[in-house]
Design goal:
This protein is α/β, with parallel strands linked by helices. The protein is built from 5 helices and 4 strands. It has helices at 18-29, 49-57, 89-93, 120-142, 151-162, and strands at residues 6-12, 34-40, 83-86, 104-107. β1, α1 (18-29) and β2 form a beta-alpha-beta unit. The longest helix has 23 residues, at 120-142. The protein starts with 5 loop residues before the first strand and ends in a 9-residue tail after the last helix.
Length: 171
């Protein structure tokens, strides 16, 4: 018997930083059990260069990303999505498309590293911090026994992950 692969969509407004980082992380840590995608409600049209640079430096998948609209995933022929996570507060409050199949959703808000102004080091730190927070949540998610949890319990666990803060330490 082959194990099922779950499709996960990470949403943010611009689809240029946080959702891209999350997509890369889950595709890396998902061990074939998860296939990640990302999109935005108002995509910027390009992936933030610091996001791609960080992914490369961390030896995470960094190729083939593009900033795209969430409408692509609500259209006929799009992959069936099992889970949707909003990673920015703006996208969590927006009216989302009607998703085919009624995927489970949760909000995993992360501060926007692309909004940080300051030195190059401060900007790089913000991206590393966002990556670490997403990685913590994604590792918790991938460790869930999804197939053995009822829907109510799974939904509660997904929401609890969104409230998880990574342990303090070097970023």
């Amino acid at each position: 018997m082959t194990e099922r692969t779950y499709n996960v969509l990470f949403l943010c407004t611009g689809n240029s930083a946080r959702s891209i980082l999350a997509e890369s992380l889950l595709n890396n840590w998902g061990n074939g059990k998860f296939r990640a995608f990302s999109a935005g409600s108002f995509p910027k049209g390009q992936v933030h260069p610091l996001a791609l640079d960080l992914l490369k430096r961390m030896n995470l998948p960094a190729e083939g990303f593009r900033s795209k609209s969430w409408d692509e995933f609500a259209a006929p022929g799009a992959p069936a999505i099992d889970f949707i996570f909003t990673v920015c507060d703006n996208a969590a409050g927006e009216v989302c498309p009607v998703w085919p199949g009624k995927p489970m959703t949760a909000h995993w808000g992360i501060a926007d590293p692309a909004a940080v102004e300051g030195t190059d080091a401060e900007k790089a730190f913000a991206f590393r911090k966002a990556l670490k927070e997403l990685e913590t949540r994604i590792k918790l998610f991938t460790s869930l026994p999804i197939d053995s949890l009822d829907g109510v319990t799974l939904q509660a666990k997904l929401r609890a992950i969104g409230k998880t803060n990574p342990a303090p330490g070097p970023v």
